[in-house]
Write a structure and sequence with these properties.
Layout (H helix, E strand, L loop, with lengths): L6 H13 L3 H10 L10 H10 L3 H12 E2 L2 E2 L5 H14 L2 H9 L8 H12 L3 H14 L7 H17 L3 H18 L2 H17 L3 H14 L6 H18 L3 H13 L2 H14 L3 H9 L4 H11 L6 E5 L11 E2 L12 H10 L7 E2 H8 L10 H19 L3 E6 L2 E6 L4 E5 L7 H13 L4 E2 H8 L3 H13 L3 E4 L6 E4 L2
Parallel strand pairs: 4-8
Antiparallel strand pairs: 1-2, 3-8, 5-7, 6-7, 9-11, 10-11
Length: 491
Amino acid sequence: MSKTRDWSTELEELDAQIKGGRIADVQNALRDIEAPTVPEVLRHRFANLCRRVGLAPLGLRILSENVLLDGELRRDALAQDLIEYGVGLQRVGAVREAMGILGGIDAKAYPEADLYLAFGAIVSWDYDAALGWIDSFLARTEENPGDPYRRLVARLNRLECLLITGQHDHLEASATALEAELRAQGHTLLLGNAYEIQAQSRVAKGQFNEALESLASARELIPESNSADSLFISKWQAIARARRDHSIENIQEARSEALQLGHWETLRDLDSQALRIAPTQELACWVYFGTPFASYRRNLERNLQWTPPAETWVTTDVIMSRPAAEGLDIVLEDIGDGRAGLAHRLILLLASDYYRPFRGGEIFARIFADERFNPQTSMNRVHQQIGEARQLITELKWPFRIDEDGGRYSLRWTAPGRLWVRNQELNLDADAVQVAFLRKHFEGRDFATAEAATVMAKSASSARSWLSRAVEKNLLGRYGSGASIRYNFLA
């Protein structure tokens, strides 16, 4: 008679291995487990382990059997399964869907839902909302802390929220208290992170030598390596020295290291800080229009005391030594009705961030905005659209390519060029893209149904149906009646 597998003990052992730093061993063990054999009541724990070692898609596939039924959320899904599923969605990039799931959890019974909502807001650069959710989590767990380490992580993330929202005096007091607790409890990595955030705040206040002291304390705890934590310390040491000495030499050296390691958010920060020392319109436009987060853009405007243009060219001169050649407007480029579709919108999405690659789940969530992410099928659909987008780029001879690295996709220039950009939120709605094309063609003037049908290569009835939908979505205005109906562009 075969011995019954002790799943609970096995998962506890894998958890201990993660805490001991044996990430590769745990990854191999999780991959070797046959999904159907994991007991239903333990699938959320299995998915948790997967998420923590970079295998979130695997955890989602297994946990989806508990959470989804015919592609929709099960009404009888357990809160613990929904929470872990929501956090897994965050990891693959489907943040909006994750926030919807986590927002439906009873936070009084499961306060960790508030913390995970905060993480989703941080990823989206909504630090005001994140701060509120973290404070809610800390208040709910003050008397019954549950996992004390999780509260420490929450307090560390709270420091980051205070930093980005400019509450530096409050941050200094909170950091000092947290550092004392972390030091007493021996949490060296979190302590190093706290010193680094404190240093960022001191840089923002112009206290550059004090910032370097905090970073020296962080470096004692986190030795130099290729890890992200180590790179953050090096980055802020370079920034503090550059700001103190009013020289970008240190920033340029740190930028080369970040580029070699492929740490794109560090590159964005370094370029932003370089603008504080040696501002140029070209670099300011590159950082501003190459960052899709509204709050980041507002911070940049405030820090530089700069008003960005409503629309302008951004040029690869800032990243290539050769001058830019022809300019390109990929939003309104005439690529033919029916040829663009999802592939065109995917290219627009990738072109919205000049630094950070997009995760597959994030691409799915933005391109198929009205659909729920399916761990079994959604990534295959993304891969199909990536292939079609690459084909479209080749056919149009656009000077960039789509790169993939570890399941993340980015648009990279292959030759010097210029992009025409607009200071407005990217709208990937297919109808909105079509309206933008019509606006360009008609040069903003009003038009009739027959004119639109000709431009869109549609029959009169198809054009009339589409125009009615655009009016219902407040993308176009309409006036007149019968054969005299005309359409106008809304401001």
